[in-house]
Amino acid sequence: MSEPLPRRAAVTGIGVVAPNGASTETFWKSTREGISVLDRVTREGCEDLPLRVAGQVRDFDPSAAIEERFLVQTDRFTHFAMAAADFALDDAQLGRPETDAAPFSVGVVTAAGSGGGEFGQRELQQLWGKGSRFVGPYQSIAWFYAASTGQISIRHGFKGPCSVVAADEAGGLDALAHAARAVRRGTDVIVAGATEAPIAPYSVVCQLGYEELSTVDDPTRAYRPFTSAACGFVPAEGGAMLVVEAEAAARERGARVQAYLAGHAATFTGASRWEESREGLAQAVRQALEEADCAPEEIDVVFADALGVPEADRAEALAIADALGAHGTRVPVTAPKTGIGRGYCAAPLMDVAAAVLAMEHGLIPPTPNVFDICHDLDLVTGRARTAEVRTALVLSRGLMGSNSALVLRHGATDAS
User: Does the keyword Repeat apply (predicted)?
Assistant: First the structure.
């Protein structure tokens, strides 16, 4: 008797709320056109802080997307997550579970690096300004990293395996790996992703301790990785959620498979040890390729971590060459995040969304604000590049030392 085919983890829905678009469609339109929306920080309380430039979500009205009873007990980062999850579920044409058993076949996995800073700051101001009786009861849960996982599962009645990943910025990719493995173990659907809302006074002050943070006040120059003018990264808010589904279940209900989560690996090399991240990132890529049964030359595009720190950029360029060999200097590399900011755990999720859409549309989006490349990379700049994208590699590193790599296959890939 032949062995049953392994359960493949398929992406059937994408939802994005980003600085360049509060919907998946507007996000992709801006991304493929290379539009930069980086601008001066305007959030109340942040105007006089050293951080001058960020990627802010400006055209998002949470009250239009989320019920009041959820709004009052959640932070902005969870508002993004709930809205993006709705977009992803709609894209996957997946409604609320209708049978007693169905809720247990759907789970939620999210990653977060900063949690609900804005909500927490407001309540702490109430505490010190007015007293403990003025602190709302939701302070105990709204700031917490797991809040988005909990609120999405409660709101939609999902009772399957739920979790939160705390693994530095690279945790965004790790959350998708957890989703893929849950699907392979038997769960039909996982709603997975990451969102962040770090543009609030308390959160920004915490970030000022990062040596890698850019404090340049010109939006066109504040975030320019892989150039001689690299001066750090600028933060961003927003994020993306995906519906990750067992391929067989998706096919059975007639869903469109947009991509496969084919391979993933993670390593750890220590906080701000950027030279050492070369070896750690390369190893993550090799292991992800091995899990995906993918040869280096099959990679059609690399979505780079693109920290914007000279030592880190050099380490990443060398890691790509180390892991992909000669193909590493020829494969197109892109970093759309230079137009929206680096959204911590959410950054690689927005890259994954862009990678899946790049496969669908046959376009590799450009790297905004970057022109004079000083590394041996085929970095896509200026305008989108037409290409047949069947396999994409997404990279992510965290300031505390996590490295992660994810291999995506096009949804039209042969199922054999």
Answer: no
